[in-house]
């Protein structure tokens, strides 16, 4: 989420918000950059030569941009092939890269894979869903001077990192969940799988992302809803009404995404209370980063008048238990949430994207 450009963001009502966005402060992320580098080198050192060859690719390998959230094999080394100490090193790298909150969310998502396996209609579908079918790829040798990257990916998770010195890109970042609520009614075999999940991983997934957004949309008056809310049957904008990939308007396995038009209701069109709710919702997604990385993003995206240029758009019913999607769009980034697969609830997809900075593609312009 980075840019130093003057940006104009317009909404369908013709209101424009102008903000100057500061360039990213690399020094503010130096601690995480160093910790990620150390954890990545520790992980690589724990691998056998054959495993290391599977895990490592050169920096600009096409696989670095080949991201997806669907189940199935990828390039990289798979958790299933690692011993306990190697797995711990892999998970330590993940925890270092995403912070404690996101690490817990990812573990909750992985723990649901046996439940999804029990829900499948075919043996092949069942076999593709397991908590050890997640792949780690490292792009070039982790270095303090040369760019490198790494990825943790499998069903419902795609965490992509590019590091250049003390600069960190952590998008695209996808976290999904199914079933998000383990208290829902389930067939006997599915319930048996759910009952095997450790107690600390059984809470409802992504509650803040859903509840804070619904509270915001329900707070809007009629004129604000006319800008912010569309029904599931209405086009979203940009001709994307029927073009969702994995429920996402922003797409999957694309190197870059583009802004939605119209973007929704701007922060400048909200009351002070609503704008605070919008900022709190964005903060929910900043918990998917180490504290220093989140602080750097916060200083550029949420301080001063910056929230005036952030837009919120809701798609679907505003009532609990009904299919819905939403986006939060700023001048340089977009956050997307979808819980609408088959016009039902229980299956959530979320992403954080940067229009110019996914995979660190804007590093050479800073």
Topology:
Layout: E1 6-10, E2 16-20, H1 30-46, H2 49-55, E3 56-57, E4 77-78, H3 84-111, H4 113-119, H5 123-127, E5 135-139, E6 148-154, E7 157-164, E8 167-169, E9 173-177, H6 188-194, H7 207-219, H8 222-228, E10 229-230, E11 265-266, H9 272-286, H10 291-301, E12 311-316, E13 324-329, E14 333-339, E15 348-354
Parallel strand pairs: 3-5, 10-12
Antiparallel strand pairs: 1-2, 4-5, 5-6, 6-7, 7-8, 7-9, 9-15, 11-12, 12-13, 13-14, 14-15
Helix pairs in contact: 1-3, 4-6, 7-9
What's a quick, concise take on this entry?
With 366 residues, this protein is of the alpha+beta class. The chain has one domain (6-365).
Structure, explained:
Residues 1-21 and 237-242 have low confidence and may be disordered. With 366 residues, the protein is of the alpha+beta class. The protein has one domain (6-365). A hairpin with a 5-residue loop joins strand 1 (6-10) and strand 2 (16-20). The strands form two sheets. Strands 3, 4, 5, 6, 7, 8, 9, 10, 11, 12, 13, 14 and 15 form a 13-stranded mixed beta sheet that branches. It has helices at residues 30-46, 49-55, 84-111, 113-119, 123-127, 188-194, 207-219, 222-228, 272-286, 291-301, and strands spanning 6-10, 16-20, 56-57, 77-78, 135-139, 148-154, 157-164, 167-169, 173-177, 229-230, 265-266, 311-316, 324-329, 333-339, 348-354.
Indicate the proportion of strand residues: 15-25%
Number of helices: 10
Helices and strands, in N-to-C order?
Answer: EEHHEEHHHEEEEEHHHEEHHEEEE
DSSP E strands, number: 15
Task: Tell me, briefly, the overall form.
Answer: globular
Termini separation: 13 Å
User: Assembly state here?
Assistant: single chain
Most strands sheet:
13 strands, mixed
Mean pLDDT: 90
What structural class is derived from the secondary structure elements?
alpha+beta
Radius of gyration: 20 Å
Question: Number of domains in the coordinates?
Answer: 1
Percentage of helical residues? Answer: 25-40%
Any low-confidence stretches, pLDDT <50, length ≥5?
1-21, 237-242
């Amino acid at each position: 989420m980075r840019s130093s450009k003057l940006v104009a963001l317009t909404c369908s009502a013709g209101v424009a918000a102008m903000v100057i966005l500061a360039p990213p402060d690399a020094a503010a992320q130096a601690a995480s950059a160093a910790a990620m580098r150390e954890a990545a080198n520790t992980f690589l050192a724990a691998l056998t030569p054959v495993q290391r060859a599977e895990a490592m690719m050169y920096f600009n390998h096409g696989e670095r941009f080949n991201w997806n959230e669907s189940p199935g094999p990828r390039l990289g080394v798979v958790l299933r092939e690692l011993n306990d100490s190697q797995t711990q090193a892999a998970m330590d790298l993940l925890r270092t890269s995403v912070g404690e909150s996101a690490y817990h969310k990812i573990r909750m998502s992985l723990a649901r894979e046996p439940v999804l396996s029990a829900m499948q209609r075919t043996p092949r579908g069942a076999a593709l869903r397991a908590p050890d079918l997640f792949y780690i790829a490292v792009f070039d040798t982790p270095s303090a001077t040369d760019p490198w990257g790494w990825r943790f990916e499998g069903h419902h998770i795609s965490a992509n990192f590019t590091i250049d010195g003390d600069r960190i890109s952590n998008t695209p970042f996808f976290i999904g969940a199914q079933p998000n609520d383990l208290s829902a009614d389930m067939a006997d075999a599915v319930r048996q799988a759910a009952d095997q999940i450790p107690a600390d991983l059984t809470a409802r997934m992504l509650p803040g992302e859903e509840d804070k957004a619904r509270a915001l949309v329900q707070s809007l008056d009629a004129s604000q809803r006319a800008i912010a809310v569309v029904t599931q049957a209405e086009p979203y904008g940009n001709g994307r009404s029927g073009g969702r990939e994995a429920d996402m308007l922003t797409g999957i396995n694309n190197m870059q995404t583009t802004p939605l038009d119209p973007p929704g209701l701007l922060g400048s069109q909200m009351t002070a209370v609503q704008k605070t709710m919008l900022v709190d919702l964005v903060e929910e997604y900043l918990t998917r980063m180490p504290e220093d990385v989140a602080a750097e993003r916060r200083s550029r995206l949420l301080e001063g008048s910056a929230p005036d240029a952030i837009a919120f758009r809701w798609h679907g019913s505003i009532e609990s238990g009904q299919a819905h999607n939403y986006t939060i769009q700023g001048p340089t980034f977009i956050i997307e949430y979808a819980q609408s697969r088959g016009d039902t609830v229980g299956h959530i997809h979320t992403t954080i994207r940067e229009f110019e900075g996914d995979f660190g593609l804007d590093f050479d312009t800073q």
